[in-house]
Write a structure and sequence with these properties.
The chain is built from 13 helices and 21 strands. By secondary structure, the chain is α/β, with parallel strands linked by helices. The termini are far apart. Bound molecules: flavin-adenine dinucleotide (FAD). The site of flavin-adenine dinucleotide (FAD) has 36 residues, from α1, β2, α2, α3 and β3. Keywords: Cytoplasm, Disulfide bond, FAD, Flavoprotein, NAD, Nucleotide-binding, Oxidoreductase, Redox-active center.
């Protein structure tokens, strides 16, 4: 290939494909290389998020939630559906269809924006030079002004529980079961663990989550985490905290897991074991020997505030540069790096990144937790309102949970908002906008919210910061 590019993007996950499209919109000549192969061994754009993460997990969460509701909630609405039959093959087919439409959509977006797409691996050889290797093994050197690394992350594998793709699986494997296992073990009760655990539990599996840390969901506000733990346990998820797995041994049919909890040695046998203990940066073979792209002590690509790596003309964005490993964080960085290359002065506000856990009820938050505000020595006020005081939540039959707003006691600026309840994944976005504009709780309290909507709980929480809620 003799053609020269303005930008070569390595990786077509949320960070990479967005960077490629934005750079092309800004008039740059862009090629995006991605090596992902789907289960049919076909190249598929969209990275982890579209192929094996955000999208397929949400598709199965929806199907499993509907099954659960049909069995347990329809009757209270006066709907008698008799025995609800489950068709896992159809459920998986629907999920695969959603993934196919969206990954194919990226191919169309590339075409529409003039982004060239190459299936295979990219390797940084030096500033301005990338080696491309197709899936057939053909190699080409590509010359380019700039390189954007967006190679993402991969699941952490445990030596004591290596993946075998059958009985011990990673998060992608856990989205592909073709029948409901009777007993499922999950190592790790982070957001991926509880989402996957919820899917299989709603479909009838007995699910046990083994979490080494004593606190449940340490990244969430303690009140939200406490409510979530109580609710998930009530739903039947067996969540064991402070449980350190020491070994996982398979025979042809099951996995025997040994773990310690406090002073006790315990063991449990599962039909399938999901390992969801985190993700690590995907940097294997990313750079040729001698290409000086430095990594930090955790293996993430080291960048400065402008996403520049240690090698001139080489940038990095998305999961490969570090936490939070979230698709929307990667997308914002993708847009930003492209605009920097075009000479603009964009900015990512890392203080206003929404976090969501897509269980039922959902968990969502933005900004600082109460513990973080306290640790920072800030004088603050809290307004907390339960969804039980909200008409729409009652009509939905989903009145568990609450909205908790934390504001600076002196300036009233909103410092963090933490929610657990119905569709809080959508509600949190109002708070992201509010925090982006440095809104006060009074600003939100004085904004009219439609009735009856779940967002009224956000409104009431803002009123509650000043001790004047109307409906609670
Ligand atoms: P990735 O999506 O990992 O994409 C990197 C791409 O680069 C891949 O296609 C890879 O094949 C390719 N690549 C790597 N090296 C090379 C190379 N040398 N040459 C060519 N190609 C290469 N995040 C959310 O925000 N919301 C969610 O609800 C959510 N749910 C998730 C559920 C699960 C089960 C999992 C596992 C993750 C979830 N995530 C979620 C996280 C989200 O998937 C990641 O944060 C996101 O995909 C990161 O985007 P990225 O572009 O940085 O990397």
């Amino acid at each position: 290939m003799s053609k020269e590019y303005d930008v070569v993007v390595i990786g077509a996950g949320p960070a990479g494909y967005v960077a490629a499209i934005r750079a092309a919109q800004l008039g740059m000549n862009v090629v995006c290389i991605d090596k992902w192969l789907n289960l049919d061994d076909k190249p598929s754009l969209g990275g982890t998020c579209l192929n094996a993460g955000c999208i397929p997990s949400k598709a199965l969460l929806e199907s499993s939630e509907l099954y659960h509701r049909a069995n347990h909630e329809f009757a209270t609405h006066g709907l008698k559906v008799g025995d609800v039959e489950m068709d896992i093959a159809q459920m998986q087919k629907r999920k695969a269809g959603v993934v196919k439409e969206l990954t194919g959509g990226i191919a169309s977006l590339f075409k529409a924006n003039g982004v060239e797409s190459l299936a295979g691996s990219g390797q940084v050889v030096d500033s301005g030079e990338v080696k491309y290797t197709s899936h057939d093994g053909d190699e080409q050197t590509i010359k380019t002004e700039n390189i954007i690394i967006a190679s993402g992350s991969i699941p952490v594998e445990l030596d004591i529980a290596p993946f075998d793709g059958e009985l011990i699986v990673d998060s992608w494997g856990a989205l592909e079961f073709d029948e409901v296992p009777k007993k499922v073990g999950v190592i790790g009760a982070g957001y991926i663990g509880v989402e996957l655990g919820s899917v299989w539990s709603r479909l009838g599996a007995e699910v046990t989550l083994l979490e080494a840390v004593e606190d449940f969901m340490p990244i969430a506000d303690r009140d939200v985490a406490k409510e979530a733990l109580k609710t998930f346990k009530k739903q039947g998820l067996d969540i064991q905290l402070g449980a350190r797995v020491t070994s996982a041994k398979t025979n042809k049919k099951s996995v025997r897991v040994e773990y310690t909890q406090g002073d006790e040695n315990k063991s449990e046998t599962f039909d399938r074991l999901i390992v969801a203990v985190g993700r690590r940066p995907n940097t294997a073979n990313l750079c040729a020997k001698g290409a000086q792209v430095e990594l930090d002590d955790k293996g993430f690509v080291d960048t400065d505030d402008f996403y520049r790596t240690s090698l001139p003309g080489v940038y990095a964005v998305g999961d490969v540069v570090g936490n939070p490993m979230l698709a929307h964080k990667g997308m914002e960085e993708g847009v930003t790096v492209a605009e920097i290359l075009a000479g603009q002065k964009p900015h990512v506000n890392y203080d206003a990144i929404p976090s969501v856990v897509y269980t039922t009820p959902e968990l969502a938050w933005v900004g600082k937790s109460e513990a973080q505000v306290k640790a920072a020595g800030i004088d603050y006020r809290v307004g907390q309102i339960p969804f039980a005081a909200n008409g729409r939540a009652k009509a939905l039959g989903q009145q568990g949970g609450f909205v908790k707003m934390i504001a600076d006691a002196q300036t009233d600026e909103i410092l963090g908002v933490h929610m657990i309840g119905p569709y809080v994944s959508e509600l949190v976005q109002e708070m992201v906008v509010a925090m982006e504009y440095k809104a006060s709780s009074e600003d939100i309290a004085r904004i009219m919210h439609g009735h009856p909507t779940l967002s009224e709980t956000v409104h009431e929480a803002a009123l509650a910061v000043d001790g004047r809620p109307i409906h609670f």
